[in-house]
Amino acid sequence: MPNPQDLNMSRRDLMAASAATVTLAGAASTANAAPTPDAPSLVKVAFEVNGDKRVLTLDTRTTLLDALREHLKLTGTKKGCDHGQCGACTVIVDGRRINSCLTLAVMHEGDKVTTIEGLGTPDKLHPLQAAFVKHDGYQCGYCTPGQICSAKAVLDEIKAGVPSHVTQDITKDPKLTEAELRERMSGNICRCGAYSNIVEAIGEVAGGLA
Amino acid sequence: MRAFTYERATTPADAATAVARDPTARFIAGGTNLLDLMKLEIETPRRLVDVNGLKLDKIEPTQDGGLRIGALVRNTDLAADKRVRKGYGVLSRALLAGASGQLRNKATTAGNLLQRTRCPYFYDTNMPCNKRTPGAGCSAIGGFTRGHAVLGTSEACIATHPSDMAVAMRILDAGVETVRPDGATRTIPIAEFHRLPGATPHIETALTAGELITAVTLPKPVGGVHAYHKVRDRASYAFALVSVATILHKDGSGRVALGGVAHKPWRNETAESVLRGQVPAPQAFGRAADILLQDAKTYAHNAFKIPLARRAIVRTLTQAANATPQIQAIKTIR
Description:
heterodimer; A: 7 helices; B: alpha+beta; five-stranded antiparallel beta sheet; four-stranded antiparallel beta sheet
């Protein structure tokens, strides 16, 4: 933990520095001025998205979500709260679902990222996409890409024996039940409230609930 | 978010040195709390030192029959580890009661311990907060206090520590292993790791500048029935109003700690001593609860936490005594 005085100083310093940067910013874009403490820091990063190798040079502040949407134009992944509370930005990285809004793109060197665009296409829907359509697992659809990426990982987690908050006996493998799906999907908020249909869709793809 | 430089650390001591040298530097591992705070400019590091490459992601047996959990072990992996599920069930339960599946996949063991409070006034940069700006004042005192602490508070801060995992680690007598910039290592007992707010609520842990957590150790399993009960506003994905971690043995002796009520996991060994030699039943559990809660001080909107905590303790210990399955869906205690 740094000294509180240091924290205090850095905050004030930062305010002063950022005020100075406002005037520098215009010059920086044309004259390529030397970086100030608050100037963007650019870093090259390479990762795989939906099977394609992508190399980007990004401001270190860029989240994986913004890299996908704004730099790679993969706008299927949605920005909801941008604070890890809603799950709309859920993608699968190296087989695990994460909130792409709460991770920096530069931290994913060499990783394999799967977005909703990598799961299915309009001509060849992923079984979960088809089941969401069939069961009306959405109304506005904004949370749906996150719901589906999350659902795919949830089924893999249950298969791998990862327990959950509602697993009755954590020394045994979890069962595929409605309670398990509801608990495991709680990080994906649906403001339209299509939850019961979402559970039905996932349950059908899983081959029926216990 | 303010601009920052980014680097990947290659050894724990190098990481510690880099952060110790620069007071504006921070370690980043899972990043789920830090990046959230950076977006709100509550944290404004100029330099991030990524520790994900330090190979601190193993769970290994220790010589005394316990476990050493690497600092970078993700919450999902720790909760799912077969040894943890069998010998330290309260830890699995606590982890699984926290956050969401997505967050547990990223959040690390050390990061979970180091996460900051979710006090709304800490998060609102328009309001004074002694954690954000020492000496600025506390907006929670006199403000909306429903989620705030009732134990160990001070006139400077009434925030709670939000971790579930830490409450379980507290009753497991965990140790926090660290490395300092000069390469020196030490183990901080979990009881001394988190601090009470006192006059310096911005100093939250016993860590010194640049000191990096490398692992958390658990002594060998103590047996007994493990239970973690979390009371919150939603059935899932919410912070605790009150949570209870317990390990209860057949002879009535046991351990109990509270979450959601203080600046650190709240445990009082005197409360546990009254369980010893008693019939494990609600009467004895209530006496233990009263001792655990005896110095509670309430604020405008959180007086409910005292009876809630008392009932949650009695319920959780009763569940443990009867070995009732510890799931929220089961509402009755057999």
